[in-house]
């Protein structure tokens, strides 16, 4: 039986996001598919899956970006392919808010504001809490509801949020979102068990 690769999907792929995701992946002992960055996403879903399979360990953080394209753009097409691939287990999705021109939105299970506070409401691109519960607006969120991820975490614009998620500061908001997904998915417990019992 093939061990499925454990992946976190992130709906942002600009230069700020790349720097942040690389740092966070290193800090949690995971891997980042650096080649998945782009605004919009350039790599196909097939190419991204091949890169995921080449990484030495999990979790694998992957970026997707539509750059404001109406409906399902290249980033979401690639994300859908990766999420539905038989060799991939999606631990969760980080849904990134933006000032989307076409008001695409998705449901989220929880959001993290720019001060690191968990909320049942959505947040805007600056990481400020909004008044609408369980919903954020973004430009690469069109198909998230159809992917049935175990958890969807909403955050503001990665690496920004009024400088509170700056990569120089260790990107604390993005890191918290990743850690929340790892905790809720049980992945941290699996890693502890593997360390204590290498033959399990």
Strand order of the largest sheet: 2-3-1-4-11-6-7
The radius of gyration computed from the alpha-carbon positions, rounded to a whole number of angstroms, is 16 Å
Report the span from N to C terminus: 15 Å
Count the beta strands: 11
Order of SSEs: EHEHEHEEEEEEEEHH
What is the mean pLDDT? 91
Indicate the proportion of strand residues.
Answer: 15-25%
Instruction: Quickly give the structural class.
Output: alpha/beta
Task: Give the overall silhouette.
Answer: globular
Helix coverage percent: 25-40%
Low-confidence stretches: none
Largest sheet: number of strands, sense, barrel closure? 7 strands, mixed
Number of helices: 5
Features of the shown structure:
alpha/beta; two-stranded antiparallel ribbon; globular
Structural description of this entry:
The chain is α/β, with parallel strands linked by helices. It is built from five helices and eleven strands, in the order E-H-E-H-E-H-E-E-E-E-E-E-E-E-H-H. Strands 2-3-1-4-11-6-7 form a seven-stranded mixed beta sheet, sandwiched between helices. Helix 2 packs across helix 3 (74-84). The longest helix is centred in the last third of the chain and has 14 residues, at 172-185. The radius of gyration is 16 Å and the shape is globular. It starts with a strand and ends with a helix. The mean pLDDT is 91.
């Amino acid at each position: 039986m093939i061990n499925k690769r454990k992946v976190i999907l992130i709906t942002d792929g600009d230069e700020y996001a790349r720097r942040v995701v690389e740092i966070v992946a290193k800090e949690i002992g995971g891997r980042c598919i650096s080649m998945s960055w782009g605004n919009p996403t350039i790599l196909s879903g097939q190419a991204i899956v091949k890169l995921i399979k080449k990484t030495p360990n999990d979790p694998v953080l992957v970026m997707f970006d539509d750059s404001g394209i109406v409906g399902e753009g290249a980033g979401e097409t690639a994300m859908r392919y990766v999420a539905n691939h038989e060799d991939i287990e999606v631990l969760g999705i980080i849904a990134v808010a933006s000032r989307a021109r076409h008001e695409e939105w998705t449901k989220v299970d929880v959001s993290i504001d720019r001060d690191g506070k968990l909320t049942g409401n959505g947040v805007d691109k600056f990481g400020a809490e909004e008044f609408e519960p369980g919903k954020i607006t973004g430009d690469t969120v069109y198909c998230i509801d159809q992917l049935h991820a175990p958890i969807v975490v909403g955050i503001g614009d990665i690496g920004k949020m009024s400088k509170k998620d700056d990569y120089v500061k260790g990107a604390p908001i993005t890191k918290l979102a990743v850690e929340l997904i790892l905790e809720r998915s049980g992945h941290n417990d699996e890693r502890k068990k593997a360390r204590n019992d290498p033959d399990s």
